[in-house]
Amino acid sequence: MPESHIVTNLRWSRDDVAALLALPFPELLFRAMSVHRENFDPVRVQISTLLSIKTGGCPEDCGYCPQAAGHETGTKAGKLMEVEAVLREARAAKEKGAARFCMGAAWRSPKEHDLDTVCEMVAGVKALGMESCVTLGMLSGVQAQKLKDAGLDYYNHNLDTSPEYYGKVISTRTYQDRLDTLGAVRDAGINVCCGGIVGMGEDETDRAGLIATLASLPVPPESVPINALVAVEGTPLAKAEPIDAIEFVRVVAAARITMPKSYVRLSAGREAMSDEAQALCFMAGANSIFHGDKLLTTKNATVPHDEALFARLGMRAES
Does residue 312 have an active-site annotation? Predict the structure, then answer.
Protein backbone atom coordinates (compact mmCIF):
# COMPACT_ATOMS: atom_id res chain seq x y z
CA MET A 1 0.00 0.00 0.00
CA PRO A 2 1.37 3.48 -0.84
CA GLU A 3 2.73 5.34 2.16
CA SER A 4 0.24 8.19 1.71
CA HIS A 5 -2.69 5.92 2.60
CA ILE A 6 -1.40 4.85 5.99
CA VAL A 7 -2.50 6.83 9.04
CA THR A 8 0.84 8.03 10.42
CA ASN A 9 0.53 11.71 11.29
CA LEU A 10 -2.55 11.87 13.47
CA ARG A 11 -4.38 15.18 13.27
CA TRP A 12 -6.62 13.84 16.01
CA SER A 13 -5.27 11.30 18.49
CA ARG A 14 -7.39 8.79 20.37
CA ASP A 15 -6.78 10.84 23.53
CA ASP A 16 -7.92 14.03 21.78
CA VAL A 17 -11.20 12.43 20.74
CA ALA A 18 -11.66 10.73 24.12
CA ALA A 19 -11.38 14.16 25.72
CA LEU A 20 -14.14 15.43 23.42
CA LEU A 21 -16.39 12.50 24.25
CA ALA A 22 -15.87 13.16 27.97
CA LEU A 23 -16.95 16.81 27.82
CA PRO A 24 -20.10 17.85 29.66
CA PHE A 25 -22.93 17.21 27.21
CA PRO A 26 -23.99 20.88 26.79
CA GLU A 27 -20.40 21.91 26.08
CA LEU A 28 -19.91 19.12 23.54
CA LEU A 29 -23.13 20.02 21.74
CA PHE A 30 -22.23 23.71 21.70
CA ARG A 31 -18.86 22.98 20.10
CA ALA A 32 -20.40 20.64 17.54
CA MET A 33 -23.19 23.08 16.68
CA SER A 34 -20.67 25.88 16.24
CA VAL A 35 -18.53 23.83 13.85
CA HIS A 36 -21.61 22.71 11.94
CA ARG A 37 -22.85 26.28 11.40
CA GLU A 38 -19.44 27.35 10.14
CA ASN A 39 -19.58 24.76 7.36
CA PHE A 40 -23.22 23.90 6.61
CA ASP A 41 -26.76 25.22 6.74
CA PRO A 42 -27.96 23.72 10.05
CA VAL A 43 -31.54 23.20 8.86
CA ARG A 44 -30.74 21.29 5.66
CA VAL A 45 -30.26 17.52 5.52
CA GLN A 46 -28.86 15.51 2.60
CA ILE A 47 -31.13 12.59 1.67
CA SER A 48 -29.84 9.25 0.36
CA THR A 49 -31.54 5.95 -0.43
CA LEU A 50 -29.80 2.58 -0.07
CA LEU A 51 -30.75 -0.50 -2.10
CA SER A 52 -29.39 -4.03 -1.78
CA ILE A 53 -28.60 -4.99 -5.37
CA LYS A 54 -27.17 -8.39 -4.38
CA THR A 55 -28.29 -9.84 -1.06
CA GLY A 56 -26.81 -12.55 1.16
CA GLY A 57 -24.24 -15.29 0.68
CA CYS A 58 -21.25 -13.16 1.67
CA PRO A 59 -18.14 -15.21 2.61
CA GLU A 60 -17.04 -12.67 5.25
CA ASP A 61 -17.77 -13.26 8.96
CA CYS A 62 -18.62 -9.71 10.12
CA GLY A 63 -20.25 -10.26 13.51
CA TYR A 64 -23.02 -7.74 12.94
CA CYS A 65 -24.07 -8.75 9.43
CA PRO A 66 -27.14 -10.84 8.59
CA GLN A 67 -25.82 -11.34 5.06
CA ALA A 68 -22.82 -13.44 6.08
CA ALA A 69 -23.21 -16.95 4.68
CA GLY A 70 -22.01 -18.50 7.94
CA HIS A 71 -24.71 -16.85 10.07
CA GLU A 72 -28.12 -18.50 10.46
CA THR A 73 -30.29 -15.41 10.03
CA GLY A 74 -32.78 -16.56 7.42
CA THR A 75 -31.34 -14.19 4.82
CA LYS A 76 -31.36 -15.98 1.49
CA ALA A 77 -28.59 -15.49 -1.04
CA GLY A 78 -29.83 -13.78 -4.17
CA LYS A 79 -28.48 -12.89 -7.58
CA LEU A 80 -27.36 -9.47 -8.74
CA MET A 81 -30.41 -7.43 -9.73
CA GLU A 82 -31.11 -6.50 -13.33
CA VAL A 83 -30.04 -2.99 -14.33
CA GLU A 84 -33.53 -1.78 -15.22
CA ALA A 85 -34.97 -3.05 -11.92
CA VAL A 86 -32.36 -1.03 -10.05
CA LEU A 87 -33.10 2.08 -12.09
CA ARG A 88 -36.82 1.75 -11.34
CA GLU A 89 -35.92 1.88 -7.65
CA ALA A 90 -33.69 4.89 -8.28
CA ARG A 91 -36.49 6.77 -10.04
CA ALA A 92 -38.84 6.05 -7.13
CA ALA A 93 -36.22 7.23 -4.64
CA LYS A 94 -35.75 10.48 -6.56
CA GLU A 95 -39.51 11.09 -6.53
CA LYS A 96 -39.43 10.74 -2.72
CA GLY A 97 -36.70 13.37 -2.39
CA ALA A 98 -33.46 11.39 -2.45
CA ALA A 99 -30.52 13.19 -4.05
CA ARG A 100 -28.11 10.25 -3.80
CA PHE A 101 -28.78 6.62 -4.69
CA CYS A 102 -26.59 4.05 -2.95
CA MET A 103 -26.26 0.44 -4.06
CA GLY A 104 -24.86 -2.36 -1.90
CA ALA A 105 -23.77 -5.86 -2.86
CA ALA A 106 -22.87 -8.63 -0.38
CA TRP A 107 -19.49 -9.53 -1.84
CA ARG A 108 -15.97 -9.88 -0.48
CA SER A 109 -14.94 -8.19 -3.73
CA PRO A 110 -16.71 -7.92 -7.10
CA LYS A 111 -16.07 -10.24 -10.05
CA GLU A 112 -15.28 -8.44 -13.29
CA HIS A 113 -18.51 -9.32 -15.13
CA ASP A 114 -20.55 -8.20 -12.10
CA LEU A 115 -18.56 -4.97 -11.89
CA ASP A 116 -19.43 -4.25 -15.54
CA THR A 117 -23.12 -4.57 -14.65
CA VAL A 118 -22.72 -2.29 -11.63
CA CYS A 119 -21.04 0.28 -13.88
CA GLU A 120 -24.17 0.23 -16.06
CA MET A 121 -26.25 0.89 -12.96
CA VAL A 122 -24.00 3.79 -11.96
CA ALA A 123 -24.27 5.36 -15.41
CA GLY A 124 -28.05 4.96 -15.32
CA VAL A 125 -28.35 6.61 -11.91
CA LYS A 126 -26.19 9.49 -13.09
CA ALA A 127 -28.44 9.91 -16.14
CA LEU A 128 -31.35 10.47 -13.74
CA GLY A 129 -29.53 13.47 -12.28
CA MET A 130 -28.73 11.76 -8.98
CA GLU A 131 -25.44 11.23 -7.18
CA SER A 132 -24.31 7.61 -7.13
CA CYS A 133 -22.70 5.52 -4.42
CA VAL A 134 -21.84 1.82 -4.24
CA THR A 135 -20.47 -0.55 -1.62
CA LEU A 136 -19.13 -3.76 -3.12
CA GLY A 137 -16.42 -4.92 -0.71
CA MET A 138 -12.72 -4.72 -1.43
CA LEU A 139 -11.51 -3.08 -4.65
CA SER A 140 -8.29 -3.08 -6.61
CA GLY A 141 -7.00 0.12 -8.16
CA VAL A 142 -8.12 -1.03 -11.60
CA GLN A 143 -11.64 -1.75 -10.36
CA ALA A 144 -11.86 1.63 -8.64
CA GLN A 145 -10.81 3.36 -11.85
CA LYS A 146 -13.47 1.47 -13.81
CA LEU A 147 -16.13 2.74 -11.40
CA LYS A 148 -14.76 6.26 -11.69
CA ASP A 149 -14.93 6.06 -15.48
CA ALA A 150 -18.59 5.01 -15.17
CA GLY A 151 -19.27 8.22 -13.25
CA LEU A 152 -19.35 6.97 -9.65
CA ASP A 153 -19.49 9.79 -7.10
CA TYR A 154 -19.00 7.93 -3.79
CA TYR A 155 -17.65 4.58 -2.66
CA ASN A 156 -18.68 3.30 0.77
CA HIS A 157 -16.25 1.12 2.72
CA ASN A 158 -16.58 1.41 6.49
CA LEU A 159 -13.81 0.87 9.02
CA ASP A 160 -16.53 -0.33 11.42
CA THR A 161 -14.65 0.23 14.70
CA SER A 162 -11.22 1.02 16.13
CA PRO A 163 -8.12 -0.86 14.90
CA GLU A 164 -7.80 -2.44 18.35
CA TYR A 165 -11.39 -3.74 18.60
CA TYR A 166 -11.75 -4.75 14.96
CA GLY A 167 -10.47 -8.32 15.42
CA LYS A 168 -13.24 -9.04 17.92
CA VAL A 169 -15.85 -8.39 15.21
CA ILE A 170 -14.28 -9.60 11.94
CA SER A 171 -11.58 -12.18 11.14
CA THR A 172 -11.87 -12.64 7.35
CA ARG A 173 -10.60 -9.18 6.36
CA THR A 174 -7.95 -7.07 8.07
CA TYR A 175 -8.06 -3.41 8.99
CA GLN A 176 -5.26 -2.82 6.50
CA ASP A 177 -7.39 -4.46 3.78
CA ARG A 178 -9.99 -1.79 4.43
CA LEU A 179 -7.42 1.00 4.34
CA ASP A 180 -6.03 -0.38 1.08
CA THR A 181 -9.47 -0.19 -0.56
CA LEU A 182 -9.95 3.35 0.72
CA GLY A 183 -6.59 4.24 -0.81
CA ALA A 184 -7.54 2.75 -4.18
CA VAL A 185 -10.83 4.67 -4.15
CA ARG A 186 -9.10 7.92 -3.26
CA ASP A 187 -6.42 7.42 -5.93
CA ALA A 188 -9.17 6.96 -8.54
CA GLY A 189 -10.66 10.34 -7.63
CA ILE A 190 -13.87 8.95 -6.11
CA ASN A 191 -15.32 10.55 -2.98
CA VAL A 192 -15.00 8.37 0.11
CA CYS A 193 -17.94 7.34 2.29
CA CYS A 194 -16.53 5.75 5.42
CA GLY A 195 -17.73 5.47 9.00
CA GLY A 196 -18.48 2.82 11.57
CA ILE A 197 -20.87 1.05 13.89
CA VAL A 198 -21.32 1.68 17.60
CA GLY A 199 -23.02 -0.59 20.09
CA MET A 200 -21.01 -3.73 19.22
CA GLY A 201 -19.62 -4.13 22.74
CA GLU A 202 -16.81 -1.63 22.25
CA ASP A 203 -15.99 0.92 24.95
CA GLU A 204 -15.54 4.68 24.82
CA THR A 205 -11.86 4.40 23.95
CA ASP A 206 -12.71 2.29 20.90
CA ARG A 207 -15.26 4.87 19.76
CA ALA A 208 -12.56 7.50 20.17
CA GLY A 209 -10.18 5.30 18.19
CA LEU A 210 -12.63 4.95 15.31
CA ILE A 211 -13.27 8.69 15.05
CA ALA A 212 -9.56 9.51 15.40
CA THR A 213 -8.68 7.08 12.61
CA LEU A 214 -11.32 8.49 10.26
CA ALA A 215 -10.39 12.09 11.00
CA SER A 216 -6.67 11.37 10.51
CA LEU A 217 -6.89 9.71 7.10
CA PRO A 218 -4.81 11.63 4.53
CA VAL A 219 -8.10 13.18 3.39
CA PRO A 220 -11.07 12.72 5.76
CA PRO A 221 -14.08 10.99 4.21
CA GLU A 222 -16.51 13.30 2.44
CA SER A 223 -19.35 11.27 3.97
CA VAL A 224 -19.24 9.66 7.43
CA PRO A 225 -22.07 7.22 8.26
CA ILE A 226 -22.53 6.63 11.98
CA ASN A 227 -24.47 3.42 12.53
CA ALA A 228 -26.07 2.11 15.71
CA LEU A 229 -25.92 -1.68 15.72
CA VAL A 230 -29.12 -3.38 14.63
CA ALA A 231 -28.83 -6.66 16.52
CA VAL A 232 -30.08 -9.47 14.28
CA GLU A 233 -30.92 -12.96 15.55
CA GLY A 234 -28.43 -15.49 14.27
CA THR A 235 -25.45 -13.11 14.23
CA PRO A 236 -22.72 -13.23 16.90
CA LEU A 237 -23.80 -9.76 18.10
CA ALA A 238 -27.48 -10.63 18.44
CA LYS A 239 -27.41 -10.14 22.22
CA ALA A 240 -25.36 -6.92 22.26
CA GLU A 241 -26.69 -4.22 24.57
CA PRO A 242 -28.09 -1.22 22.65
CA ILE A 243 -25.97 1.89 22.89
CA ASP A 244 -27.32 4.63 25.14
CA ALA A 245 -28.86 7.44 23.07
CA ILE A 246 -26.78 10.16 24.72
CA GLU A 247 -23.59 8.20 24.08
CA PHE A 248 -24.60 7.85 20.42
CA VAL A 249 -25.12 11.61 20.15
CA ARG A 250 -21.66 12.12 21.65
CA VAL A 251 -20.13 10.06 18.82
CA VAL A 252 -22.02 12.12 16.23
CA ALA A 253 -20.78 15.34 17.84
CA ALA A 254 -17.18 14.10 17.90
CA ALA A 255 -17.43 13.19 14.21
CA ARG A 256 -18.72 16.67 13.40
CA ILE A 257 -15.98 18.46 15.37
CA THR A 258 -13.11 16.36 14.00
CA MET A 259 -14.39 16.26 10.40
CA PRO A 260 -15.96 19.70 10.00
CA LYS A 261 -16.50 19.63 6.24
CA SER A 262 -17.79 16.05 6.00
CA TYR A 263 -21.42 15.02 5.78
CA VAL A 264 -22.21 13.07 8.94
CA ARG A 265 -24.99 10.57 8.24
CA LEU A 266 -27.40 8.91 10.62
CA SER A 267 -27.50 5.43 9.14
CA ALA A 268 -28.51 2.04 10.55
CA GLY A 269 -30.44 2.01 13.81
CA ARG A 270 -32.57 5.09 13.19
CA GLU A 271 -35.76 3.02 13.13
CA ALA A 272 -35.32 2.32 16.85
CA MET A 273 -34.37 5.89 17.80
CA SER A 274 -36.84 8.31 19.34
CA ASP A 275 -37.57 11.55 17.53
CA GLU A 276 -35.90 13.35 20.43
CA ALA A 277 -32.69 11.36 20.02
CA GLN A 278 -32.63 12.09 16.29
CA ALA A 279 -33.23 15.78 16.98
CA LEU A 280 -30.22 15.81 19.30
CA CYS A 281 -28.16 14.14 16.55
CA PHE A 282 -29.10 16.92 14.13
CA MET A 283 -28.17 19.49 16.76
CA ALA A 284 -24.84 17.67 17.19
CA GLY A 285 -24.05 18.07 13.50
CA ALA A 286 -25.64 15.15 11.66
CA ASN A 287 -26.74 16.44 8.27
CA SER A 288 -27.51 13.36 6.20
CA ILE A 289 -29.90 10.41 6.50
CA PHE A 290 -31.03 7.37 4.56
CA HIS A 291 -34.63 7.62 3.35
CA GLY A 292 -36.62 4.45 2.79
CA ASP A 293 -38.23 1.60 4.71
CA LYS A 294 -35.20 -0.71 4.50
CA LEU A 295 -31.40 -0.45 4.71
CA LEU A 296 -30.13 -3.47 2.79
CA THR A 297 -31.91 -6.11 4.92
CA THR A 298 -32.87 -4.24 8.13
CA LYS A 299 -35.72 -1.85 8.89
CA ASN A 300 -35.33 1.90 8.58
CA ALA A 301 -37.48 4.86 9.59
CA THR A 302 -40.24 5.40 7.03
CA VAL A 303 -40.32 8.33 4.62
CA PRO A 304 -43.62 9.73 6.03
CA HIS A 305 -42.15 9.59 9.54
CA ASP A 306 -39.04 11.44 8.40
CA GLU A 307 -41.11 14.08 6.62
CA ALA A 308 -43.21 14.61 9.74
CA LEU A 309 -40.08 14.87 11.91
CA PHE A 310 -38.51 17.39 9.55
CA ALA A 311 -41.70 19.45 9.65
CA ARG A 312 -41.69 19.44 13.47
CA LEU A 313 -38.04 20.53 13.56
CA GLY A 314 -38.31 23.11 10.77
CA MET A 315 -35.73 21.22 8.74
CA ARG A 316 -35.76 20.37 5.05
CA ALA A 317 -34.04 18.21 2.49
CA GLU A 318 -30.97 19.57 0.77
CA SER A 319 -31.73 20.17 -2.90
Answer: no
Q: Is 281 a catalytic residue?
A: no
Phi then psi for 291, rounded to 5 degrees?
A: -85, 150
Distance separating alpha carbons of residues 266 and 224, to the nearest angstrom: 9
Catalytic residue among 102, 119, 194, 281: 102
Residues 222-259: pLDDT tens digits?
999 999 998 888 888 888 899 999 999 999 999 999 99
Q: Are 51 and 86 in contact (CB under 8 A)?
A: yes
At residue 84, the pLDDT reads: 95
Phi, psi for 311 (deg, rounded to 5): -65, -40
Tell me whether residue 119 is one of the annotated catalytic residues: no
The verdict on whether 58 is a catalytic residue reads yes
Question: Which of the residues 14, 100, 119, 133 is marked catalytic?
Answer: 133
Residue 37 annotated among the catalytic residues of the structure:
no
Please tell me the pTM assigned to this model: 0.89
Residue 244 identity = D
As a whole number of angstroms, the distance between CA 95 and CA 102 comes to 15
Torsion of CA 211, 43, 277, 206, to 10 degrees: 0
